[in-house]
Design a protein that fits this description.
The chain is mainly β. It has one domain. The protein has four helices and 16 strands. The strands form two sheets. Strands 1-3-5-7-9-15-11-14-13 form a nine-stranded mixed sheet. The chain has a seven-stranded parallel sheet with strand order 2-4-6-8-10-16-12. A hairpin with a 4-residue loop joins strand 13 and strand 14. About 40% of the residues are buried. This is DUF7330 domain-containing protein.
């Protein structure tokens, strides 16, 4: 599935689906019930399509805020979802479900950047997000109605922006493979307590910091000059392979920026929203920042 950020009709025409309940530290907040079917807007159609040969772009679920259709209030259940922007930030909550019918991808619609990221010889990621100058703020959970073991791949890349990913829930037998990167920007990653696997953290000009609960549960097994390899959740050996369905994996890299890692629901800073969210994260975690784990 491909969404053109530049189409202004998207924010008014995105379909809604019931939201997956997620951890909410504010007991007074409540999710609004989904709209009735008759209240939903018609499917989004790409008005830039030059002929009927182009597929209709009809995204799974999701309501859009009035100020930006890249900021989603409710969770979207997705498979092979693609979103690309130039300067706008991307903020959303996604339910990764590989049991949904995969959406066809027309590579002619992809930018050169996405074509480099998405190998046409491999199965497309469950979610692919790319922005040139914007930040990325994500909440992720895996899902599925069967007990079949699967591993959802998520790609989140920005050239000049910060990245925050909160993996707040991993359902049984539904693992995750996260690839998050920025050329210049701070990175913060939160994994759930039941995450079992390897994290590869890399920064050329920045520090790598662990928040208290993550530090208590993790084991640093390698820390060369620019990289830290970490095992979490009882994982015994490092595995960075997408095809390994026995473990989870996070690959996090930035050229210029620090990397902060915590446990979702326990360490501070996992749920941050609104403008200035990275300033909020920095203020929350400032008191916990000790020395670089590679030193």
């Amino acid at each position: 599935m491909i969404i053109d950020k530049n189409d202004p009709s998207l924010s008014a025409q995105a379909e809604q689906a019931p939201a997956l309940p997620i951890k909410d530290r504010n007991p007074e907040s409540r999710l609004e019930p989904p709209q009735a079917a008759e209240d939903l807007p018609p499917p989004y159609v790409d008005h830039h399509a030059s002929s009927s040969s182009h597929d209709v772009v009809q995204p799974y679920a999701g309501s859009a805020r009035a100020n930006s259709h890249t900021q989603l209030e409710k969770s979207q259940e997705v498979n092979q979802f693609i979103l690309e922007t130039r300067q706008a930030s991307i903020s959303g909550s996604y339910i990764l479900n590989l049991e949904l019918p995969p959406q066809p991808i027309n590579r002619d619609w992809l930018s050169d950047d996405l074509k480099e990221l998405i190998d046409e010889k491999q199965k497309p990621p469950c979610v692919s997000l790319f922005t040139r100058q914007g930040c990325i703020n994500l909440k992720l959970t895996t899902a599925g109605s069967t007990s079949v073991v699967s591993k959802a791949r998520v790609m989140a890349h920005t050239r000049q922006g910060k990245v925050h990913v909160n993996i707040h829930t991993l359902h049984p037998n539904k693992r995750i493979y996260l690839e998050a990167s920025s050329r210049q920007g701070m990175m913060s990653i939160f994994v759930p307590p039941n995450f079992v696997g390897t994290l590869k953290l890399e920064t050329r000009q920045g520090k790598i910091k662990f928040l208290p609960e993550f530090e208590r549960r993790s084991r640093l097994i390698s820390a060369p000059q620019n990289t830290a390899i970490v095992l979490f959740g009882g994982a015994q050996t490092a595995s960075l392979e997408l095809d390994d369905l026995t473990s989870d994996c996070c690959l996090v890299s930035t050229r210029q920026g620090s990397i902060v890692v915590g446990v979702s629901g326990i360490d501070p800073g996992d749920n941050i929203d609104g403008q200035g969210w990275f300033q909020t994260l920095k203020s929350i975690t400032a008191s916990y920042w000790g020395s670089d784990v590679r030193r």
